[in-house]
Amino acid sequence: MPVKALLCLLDKNQDGVFEEAALRNTGFATGALSWREVESQPGGWMQLLPLLEDEDIKLCLFSGFSDEYGYEFIYQLTMLTLALRRPKLPLMAFVLDNGGVAPDFPPIMQHIMFLNRQSAFAPKLMAAAFKRNVELLKPFHIAAHVDSLIGAWLEIGPDDSSDNWPGFMAGVLDGGISAFAVGPRGVIPKKAKLIYPVFGIKGNWNEYSFTACAAKNTLDVHTSCYIQIEDAMKGLLVGAYPDEASAMEARIIAFC
């Protein structure tokens, strides 16, 4: 059975004929799409999630010039990756022209491969699609929920190896939060009972401004905080409830 691959073209003037032929000649059953065209349609980039959830797709290959990789694209791809629920994540890779600068992805996305367009990239990808185990480097439980109807949400909480969080603060760097809630892990709650909630906290973290929310709800391995993201943001800030002594240190997860 052919191995399925998805070819995403980032350069709006690109036809992808060369990349698609290289993948097909190596044994990939390849479908191609223009990221920019998808992004401009109703639902935008979020509508790619059901496609990426197909467990038969073993490779997602991006091709385009380096100036197409802005922080908004990196945010979108990071959110899509965090939203995947399939047991095994697809291999993600970029093919670059000679002299092309690789996008600077955050640590959570360091599983991405970068290959030269002028090299024999397709056989390398075929081998990696079966041998490479894709894992995300996450310091605590973090998942995304993206849908054109409900928007983009992040779900955060302690992982299986961590203590409970006796209250929390969650914020975004250079972005905004529309709403937040607490509820059972895995599903955005329709209603939530927040304990001493605080919304609209403002501050600065190094060179970034942040907006945050907080509550004294205890989070454990069965309970998460959910925050709705307004626009592309540059990072996630997680810490203890404000003005409360806690052993929980503030942590940053970069998104670009």
Structure description:
The protein has 256 residues and is an alpha/beta fold. It folds into 2 domains: 129 residues, Response regulator (Rossmann fold), CATH 3.40.50; 114 residues, no CATH class. 17% of the residues lie in helices and 38% in strands. The chain contains 5 helices and 14 strands. It has a 5-stranded parallel beta sheet. It has a 5-stranded antiparallel beta sheet with strand order 10-11-8-13-14, with no helix packed on it. The longest helix has 13 residues. The radius of gyration is 19 Å and the shape is elongated. The mean pLDDT is 90.
Main β sheet profile: 5 strands, parallel
CATH architecture of the largest domain: 3-Layer(aba) Sandwich
CATH homologous superfamily descriptor of the largest domain: Response regulator
Q: Which descriptor suits the 3D outline?
A: elongated
Structural class per helix/strand content?
alpha/beta
Index terms:
256 residues, alpha/beta, Rossmann fold, five-stranded parallel beta sheet, five-stranded antiparallel beta sheet
Structure described in brief:
This protein is of the alpha/beta class and 256 residues long. The protein has five helices and 14 strands.
List strands and helices in order, with pairings.
Layout: E1 3-9, H1 17-26, E2 28-34, H2 35-40, H3 49-52, E3 57-63, H4 71-83, E4 91-96, E5 113-116, H5 121-131, E6 141-147, E7 151-157, E8 165-173, E9 177-184, E10 198-205, E11 208-219, E12 223-229, E13 235-239, E14 251-254
Parallel strand pairs: 1-2, 1-3, 3-4, 4-5
Antiparallel strand pairs: 6-7, 7-12, 8-11, 8-13, 9-12, 10-11, 13-14
Helix pairs in contact: 1-5
